[in-house]
């Protein structure tokens, strides 16, 4: 008759029963095996020895502690069975036969089978005890599994697993109880997809296994260290060695506020494009790229942050909609691999009357998702003020786009620079007075307000690392600065030593407590230009850095050329700048010398703008 066992409330009893069963099968001779009822079940080895004892009980028997003790005992009658119980060498324990000095002494006794009755009895005893222990453990495990399953059900209440067929678009779908998908694997491309479209690519490595130090995909550059994958090789999370960050569901976790590099790449439309310096306004005439004009709000942001917000380049085209920015500008941003990508567009969607919900917002979603998946933090900018007075349809679209951008940034925790707030006239909803050149574009004053706001917001996101400065005046070769007389400490008659006077004008050497060394003041009253050519290394990377202020609304320029003074290849700086810069602001821009050139020329130009320059340097960068 089968024994009925009480229901177990926890898995502890099952664990004890399993332990008892393990002892039954594996413990050595004599080891106790007390079950929860207090009965000593012994073990298979003990029972075997008991049977063997019974099988050899017909002659004289002696018990020895060690093998050496047995060998020393040579006075036993023949035949005698000797048993070694606890020799340090386990292989010497067991039964031996004493055959006398002439018969080989003590000889290892191979166990002989007991008589059939003894074997049948042992088998019966083993079966009974194993059956009792197994039933006890099985009942406990089954009951414990029910308890555990109930706990899992409580933890996952509201979540269901939807079965699928080969014809379904998604397989392995996890849903809510009302059928809303949480995530699933799309069969068409084997991507793990969430409702919002974030996708984790499939790892297709040669060997994917738990505990592997490296999991390598076949995609170029997609190398993960210590990744967690599903049984069929899909990545849940992993450390991406190329981006040097943890990737979860395809999204790098490097996008977090604070202690980040301040390099910003910009994509957008004409509002950004017009900030590149040209010989004429609004990107007309000869390009001086990558130099920035006073229409560049990224340039103002650089100055107002004293170089902490780094200008890493831009790709912006007049007339582009959000969709065109995504298709034509974002690839350049992805290739540049900046920490931040600033997205500033939408005005042309408004002007063209595009459907905001069906066209514009999906285009923004695509832009932000692609940046996030590349480990680049999107910086969202609301559209600056617009001259939409009298155009209610445009006004509604303007605010629909701006409110979407605010909501997206708030939802995902990304930086938002509210350009609309700092440029709009609260009484009219159009541009603030004096901030625009037309209905769509800021002038220099508007760009300055936008750049100051950008520097303020991004100050919470980037590290407090200052760009390199010329803090001492040493001979060239003793520091990273290739500019001699960098602090203008050696001068005569207002002329800094070593510079060429291209246009005479007026100059003066002064001091300012805001900077180190002297300030060189140029062109207070008339046109003035000075230039200096320095040696550089082709292929090397440098940083152009200087403090500058502009006192009058007139042309001021500080820039570097590749090669000599007549070169038309610009390395960086400020050109076509005609707006005052209050106080001494620091400019910093990184560039690489190309074209085999071994020289660079710095140009300082002022046409009665009252340009002041200090702590000037071209610093060779050390890249690690």
From TrEMBL:
Annotated GO MF terms: hydrolase activity, acting on ester bonds
Domain SGNH hydrolase-type esterase: 267-449
Pfam families tied to this protein: Lipase_GDSL_2
Superkingdom of origin organism: Bacteria
InterPro entries: SGNH_hydro, SGNH_hydro_sf
Protein name per the record: SGNH hydrolase-type esterase domain-containing protein
